[in-house]
Amino acid sequence: MPQPSTHILEGINLSCIRDDRILFENLSFSLTAGQTLLLEGKNGSGKTSLLRILCGFREADEGQILWCGEAVEDSQYHADMAYVGHLDGVKKELTVLENLKVSLALGTQGTYSIQQALVRVQLSGYDDALVQTLSAGQKRRLSLARLLITHNILWILDEPFTSLDKQGIILIETLMTEHCANGGMIVLTSHHDIVLPDVSLQRIQLS
Ligand SMILES: Nc1ncnc2c1ncn2[C@@H]1O[C@H](COP(=O)(O)OP(=O)(O)OP(=O)(O)O)[C@@H](O)[C@H]1O
């Protein structure tokens, strides 16, 4: 019988200062398997800055991030985490298939094969299309396929609904619900009001 996931992400007393402006300070949270953390706040309030700190792209000015009780740098954190930012993390000079093969080579095989993921995100038939020829919404769908083909416990998503049509929004809400039901966890920013009735949702409001 599979053991329940015991993964836990903790932010402890995090602070971020930009150009002498305090974006947030003493910010703490604790996220366990199956949960989603939604960062809310107006433009410029620091949501992306917090995500970038969680990804390790920059350090917090104060505070600590723990993964399963250990400092992230001493843990499996970066192998367990996947980030989809504004730029989708795809190489525009490569084809759809080549991009997914690169992602797979850099990660651990997830539950979906490349072809299964392309069907799921409604990009089947686009294998040989250069990414630069895809629409913005299709690029976003490709970035979702990356999440499906590799095994990652923590998804960090910056405005994942951007450019998606109504079906795309439903798709990502479904994928997020499934990820959490399978013991995954998600931290995201969104200006879109998300509907995840079966997910334990925490919110942090940045001002
Ligand atoms: N590299 C940087 N150097 C200096 N200031 C920065 C840098 N990146 C962001 N900032 C500033 O930090 C503040 C917060 O930016 P951030 O991108 O985290 O906001 P956000 O809440 O994600 O905004 P939005 O909703 O518009 O995406 C802004 O005032 C921004 O100008």
Describe the 3D structure.
This protein has a five-stranded parallel beta sheet, with helices on both faces. Strand 1 (8-18) and strand 2 (21-32) form a beta hairpin. Helix 4 packs across helix 5 (136-149). The protein is 29% helix and 29% strand. The chain starts with 7 loop residues before the first strand and ends with a strand. The model has no long low-confidence stretch (mean pLDDT 92). It is globular. The chain has helices spanning 47-55, 77-80, 96-106, 114-120, 136-149, 166-181, and strands at 8-18, 21-32, 35-41, 62-67, 70-71, 81-84, 154-158, 185-189, 200-206. The chain is an alpha/beta fold and 207 residues long. Adenosine-5'-triphosphate binds next to helix 1.
Bound ligands, named by name, code or SMILES: adenosine-5'-triphosphate
Could you name the CATH homologous superfamily?
A: P-loop containing nucleotide triphosphate hydrolases
Helix % is 25-40%
Largest sheet: 5 strands, parallel
Structural shape: globular
CA-CA gap between termini: 44 Å
Q: How does CATH name the architecture?
A: 3-Layer(aba) Sandwich
Number of strands: 9
**How large is the radius of gyration?**
17 Å
* CATH class wording: Alpha Beta
Low-confidence stretches: none
Overall mean confidence score, pLDDT? 92
CATH fold name, please?
Rossmann fold
Number of domains: 1
Global structural class: alpha/beta
Beta-strand percent range: 25-35%
Q: What's the tally of helices?
A: 6
SSE sequence, one letter per element: EEEHEEHEHHHEHEE
